[in-house]
Amino acid sequence: MSHTTAAPHRSGEQDVDLTSSGLEHRIAEVSPLLNGNTTGVNGVHPNGLTNDLTNGTNGHTPKSGELDASKLTIELADPNARQVPDEATACSGTETICTDHMITCTWKVSSGWEAPALKPYGPLSLMPTASVLHYATECFEGLKCFRGFDGKLRLFRPNLNANRMLMSTLRISLPGFNPEELEKLIAKLVEVDGPKWLSKSRPGSFLYLRPAMIGTQPQLGVQAPKEALLFITASFMPRMDAPAGGMKLHTSPEDQVRAWVGGFGYAKVGANYGPSLLATNEARARGFGQILWLYGPNGECTEAGASNFFILWRAKETGKLQLVTAPLDDRLILDGVTRRSCVELARERLAGELEVVERKYTIDEVLEADKEGRIVEAFAAGTAFFICPVSLIHHRGVEVQIPMGKTGESGMYTAKIKGWLKDIMYGNEQHPWGPVVTDQ
Ligand SMILES: *Cc1c(COP(=O)(O)O)cnc(C)c1O
C-alpha cells in the first residue's frame, strides 16, 4: 500500500480544509481493503466509530504488502519459565506484568506489512532517532479479554477497537490496514495466552490487551514515517471500577485543556496523554482520582481522565430523568466503546425510565442541578475504569456531592448498566458484543 499519495495540488483549490481533506485522502487509500462498506472506512468515520459491524469477514483477501493475520509466524516461549501471579500481586509492582507472548508486525513504505510474528514477550529495539521518540507518531488501543463464568474466553466488541485504531493511525500518518486482520491478531494472542494467563480456575477475571503502533523510521525531520511497528501485548491491570467512596473528580485547571476543536482528542494517540499528567498528578496529590476536563469559555464537561463521563439528572424544564453525556460531533472527545455501549443499552433497556441525551452541557449546569437537588447519579465509563461511580466533583472551591445509592457504593442505574455489561463480558448473557475466542 502506498504511504502518502501526495494529492495533486490543483491551483484554485484553497487550503481551507487541508486537515480533513488529508484524512479523506488517507481513508480513500485504505478503502479498497474494506470493500462493501459504505459507512466511511469499514464503519469508521474520521471522527471515530460508527457502525458496529458483525464479526464476519468483509470478503477482502489480503494482497502482498497488506496486513495479513494468516501469515502469522509463531515462536512459543517456554511455558514453565514464568508463573502466573495471583490477582493480589499481579498489579502490586511498578511494572506491568505481561503474558508470555506478544505479536509484532513491521511495515515499510516500499514493501508494506511483513508477516506478523507471535513471539516471547520482551523489549523492542529502536534507534534513538526513531520517529515516535521525537514526533509522537504513536497510537494505541485498550480492550479486555474475559474468562467467563461459563469457562469461555471472550472479547468485547473488538471490531470497534480495530476500527478506531485505524482511524487513529491515519490521523498521525501511520500506515493503514484492514481492521479485521488486526482483530484476528488480537484474538490469536488471546487464544495462545488465555489458557495459562486467564485460567479457567479464575472465572470473572480479565486481561488487558494493548495494541499499539509507532513510527520507527530512524531519521530526524518532521515527516510521515516510512517505517512502522504494530505490536500487541496482553497484561494484568488492576480493577479500578469500585474505589472506596466512589471516584472523586477535580475540574481541569483554568489554563489547561485536554483537547480542542480542530485537534485530535477523538483519536487514541499518545500525544493526548503525556500533557494531561501534570493536572492529574496535582489532583491526585489533593485526593482526587481524575480530572473532569472542561472545554471552552463556558466550561463544557467533556471527559473524566481517559474515560467518558455520564451524569444522570432530572431535566430542569420537565423534571424527567436524563442520562447525559458529551456529544461526538465536534470531535473533542474519544468515541469510547464503553460509552457507546452504555448509550445503546440505556436507550434499549431503560427507554421507559429515562432519556439518553448526547449534548453539550456545562459545569454551571451541573452546579445548578446540584443546587436544585436534581443530580441523581454520575459515572465514568471506559475500558480501564469500566463503569466507575462518581461521588464528587470539585470545581473552583465548590464541592458537588453526588448520591451513591442506598449501598453507598453506586447509584441504581449505574449498577444496572454495569451489570448488563458484565453479564455480556462474562457470558451470563449470550450477546453479539461478546465474541468467544476458543481456547487452544
Ligand atoms: C480510551 C479512552 C476512553 C474510553 O474508551 P473505551 O473504548 O471505552 O475504552 C475515553 N476517553 C479517552 C480520552 C480515552 O483515551
Elements, N to C (H/E): HEEEHEEEHEEEHHEEEHEEEEHEHEEEHE
Work out the count of structural domains. 2
Instruction: Indicate the proportion of strand residues.
Output: 15-25%
**Number of E-type strands:** 21
Q: Report the mean per-residue pLDDT as an integer.
A: 91
Annotated CATH architecture of the largest domain: 2-Layer Sandwich
Bound molecules: pyridoxal-5'-phosphate
Outline of the structure:
Helices cover 23% and strands 24% of the residues. By secondary structure, it is of the alpha+beta class.
Write up what this structure looks like:
Helix content is 23%, strand content 24%. It has 2 domains: 18-238, D-amino Acid Aminotransferase, Chain A, domain 1 (2-Layer Sandwich), CATH 3.30.470; 247-425, Alpha-Beta Barrel (D-amino Acid Aminotransferase, Chain A, domain 2). The strands form 3 sheets. Strands 3, 4, 5, 6, 7, 8, 9, 10, 11 and 21 form a 10-stranded mixed β-sheet that branches. It has a 6-stranded mixed β-barrel with strand order 12-13-14-15-18-19, surrounded by 4 helices. It starts with 17 loop residues before the first helix and ends with a strand. The chain has helices spanning 18-30, 87-90, 131-135, 158-171, 179-197, 277-285, 337-349, 363-371, 412-425; strands at 44-45, 48-49, 73-74, 101-108, 112-113, 117-120, 138-140, 143-147, 153-155, 206-215, 227-235, 247-251, 290-295, 300-304, 307-314, 321-325, 355-358, 375-382, 386-395, 398-401, 436-437. Helix 4 (158-171) packs across helix 5 and helix 7 crosses helix 9. The protein has 9 helices and 21 strands. It is of the alpha+beta class and 440 residues long. Strand 12 (247-251), helix 6 and strand 13 (290-295) form a beta-alpha-beta unit. The radius of gyration is 22 Å and the shape is globular. Residues 1-11 and 35-56 have low confidence and may be disordered. Bound molecules: pyridoxal-5'-phosphate. The site of pyridoxal-5'-phosphate has 13 residues, from strand 15 and helix 7. Pyridoxal-5'-phosphate is lined by residues 142, 268, 303, 306-308, 334, 336-339, 382-383. Residues 47-61 have a biased composition (Low complexity).
